Amino acid sequence: MHRNPIFFRIILLLILIFPAIVYGKVNPEQKATINELTATTSETHLIVFGTLVNSFTSEMIETLHSGIPLRFSFFVELYKMTENWPDELIVAHNFQHIMTFDTLKENYRVTLEEDNNKVLSFRSLFEAQKVINEINGVRVEELKGLLPDHRYKIKMRAELYQKTLPLSLHNILPFLSWWDIETDWHTITFNY
Prior knowledge:
Layout: H1 5-23, E1 33-41, E2 45-53, H2 58-65, E3 70-82, E4 85-102, E5 107-112, E6 118-122, H3 125-132, E7 134-142, E8 151-163, H4 169-172, E9 178-182, E10 186-191
């Protein structure tokens, strides 16, 4: 009996794509967002604070417990705003929060890149999640780089998780991405 190889390729492709379609959907009520974004000044710098919400999925926790680190990448942009003129990008930063799970010691470690790669250890997943979700006094720009009596805008977003297709199939099917989780840009404006 001669079998059609195209038929088997189509079946294989459907087997690979179906989980991405079914499991890749994010509940809009559970969409990851940045809340409470606030800008203030220290003695020398403009700094930001904020909190990520809805940032974890059960698959991310399973991945973490299997020994693969979770990397949350944050992107911050500062613009000077001028009326009737395009916003001027002053500075753009990115930094990561990385969570690992030590299976032997059964503890979680969170590395904060923006704080000189400070490493914090936790026995509880809940406590580790609180820290990885906090944006706590991140330096954006030196105050001497800001002009008094001008309006500024800070934009921030986060990329929380990215999983690609096995065997580099994401290069063949670039329109399909599995479980990418990222926030929208969150924006605040202020006068300095």
